[in-house]
From TrEMBL:
<dbReference type="InterPro" id="IPR017689">
    <property type="entry name" value="BamD"/>
</dbReference>
<dbReference type="Pfam" id="PF13525">
    <property type="entry name" value="YfiO"/>
</dbReference>
<feature type="domain" description="Outer membrane lipoprotein BamD-like">
    <location>
        <begin position="27"/>
        <end position="234"/>
    </location>
</feature>
<keyword id="KW-0449">Lipoprotein</keyword>
<keyword id="KW-0732">Signal</keyword>
<dbReference type="InterPro" id="IPR011990">
    <property type="entry name" value="TPR-like_helical_dom_sf"/>
</dbReference>
<dbReference type="InterPro" id="IPR039565">
    <property type="entry name" value="BamD-like"/>
</dbReference>
<keyword id="KW-0472">Membrane</keyword>
<dbReference type="GO" id="GO:0051205">
    <property type="term" value="P:protein insertion into membrane"/>
</dbReference>
<dbReference type="GO" id="GO:1990063">
    <property type="term" value="C:Bam protein complex"/>
</dbReference>
<protein>
    <recommendedName>
        <fullName>Outer membrane protein assembly factor BamD</fullName>
    </recommendedName>
</protein>
<comment type="similarity">
    <text>Belongs to the BamD family.</text>
</comment>
<comment type="function">
    <text>Part of the outer membrane protein assembly complex, which is involved in assembly and insertion of beta-barrel proteins into the outer membrane.</text>
</comment>
<keyword id="KW-0998">Cell outer membrane</keyword>
<keyword id="KW-0564">Palmitate</keyword>
<comment type="subunit">
    <text>Part of the Bam complex.</text>
</comment>
<dbReference type="GO" id="GO:0043165">
    <property type="term" value="P:Gram-negative-bacterium-type cell outer membrane assembly"/>
</dbReference>
């Protein structure tokens, strides 16, 4: 009975939340509503800004403010951690405005949004490093920033994108290192070696690549491969810890 009551209250709250949204955003002229949305945005009131921008977007989808409203929504969704909505808005804007003068910024925001998907609130809160979490958002972000640099090398966002690509590369290398270590602990020696070699080939200038040599060495020792052990020991000698 308690669960039913709780479910009923939640359903009612959602119902009233949805039905009262139009009351939150008065039906005023678009210029006035846009000015109010900008004021909220500048003040960092993301939820209120979203309400007003969404109202503008739904009431005047082809109005004078249409493109700028979508750009503003991309930004406030990112700031408010509404990442799925942000990516959907980016996709919509890119499809409708493929040659827009701010497409470099849109690509940059897509990269930032994908990067934010790799962040976990609880990990941030307790300062937990989880290199083994799914790297797909990181790969997507890397591709976004790479595309920005290829298409808009003179963009004001190019330099920061390049810095972020460097950080993302290290994140991907750390994931491969964690995977290789997992294989080693599971005594999957061949799988550990292959992942280490792939890491070294793809991300040779990372700290993870250097660390992977120790995992590779341990796996070769378990397999008793003398020549491979000697080669890996030589690589470790040539790549000392910094």
């Amino acid at each position: 009975m308690k669960y039913q009551t709780l479910s009923g209250l939640l359903a009612l709250s959602l119902l009233f939340g949805c039905s009262s949204k139009d009351n939150i955003v008065p039906d005023v002229p678009p210029s006035e509503l846009y000015t109010e949305a900008q004021s909220e945005l500048q003040s960092g009131n993301w939820l209120t800004a979203i309400d007003k921008l969404e109202a503008l977007d739904s009431r005047y989808p082809f109005g004078a403010y249409s493109e700028q409203v979508q750009l503003d929504l991309i930004y406030v969704y990112y700031k408010n951690d509404d990442l799925a909505l942000g990516l959907a808005t980016i996709e919509r804007f890119s499809r409708l405005n493929p040659t827009h003068e701010k497409m470099d910024w849109v690509l940059y925001m897509r990269g930032l949004t994908h990067m934010a998907q790799d962040r976990n609130f609880m990990h941030d809160l307790f300062n937990i490093e989880r290199s083994d979490r799914d790297p797909e958002p990181v790969k997507a972000a890397f591709a976004d920033f790479k595309k920005l640099l290829q298409r808009y090398p003179d963009s004001p966002y190019a330099e920061d994108s390049q810095r972020r690509m460097f950080a993302l590369k290290n994140r991907l290398a750390e994931y491969d290192l964690a995977t290789a270590d997992f294989y080693l602990r599971r005594e999957a020696w061949i799988a550990a070696i292959k992942r280490c070699q792939e890491l070294q080939k793809t991300y040779p200038d990372t700290e993870a690549a250097r660390k992977s040599l120790q995992i590779q060495l341990a796996a070769y020792k378990e397999l008793g491969l003398a020549d491979s052990i000697a080669r890996t020991e030589k690589l470790i000698e040539l790549n000392p810890e910094k």
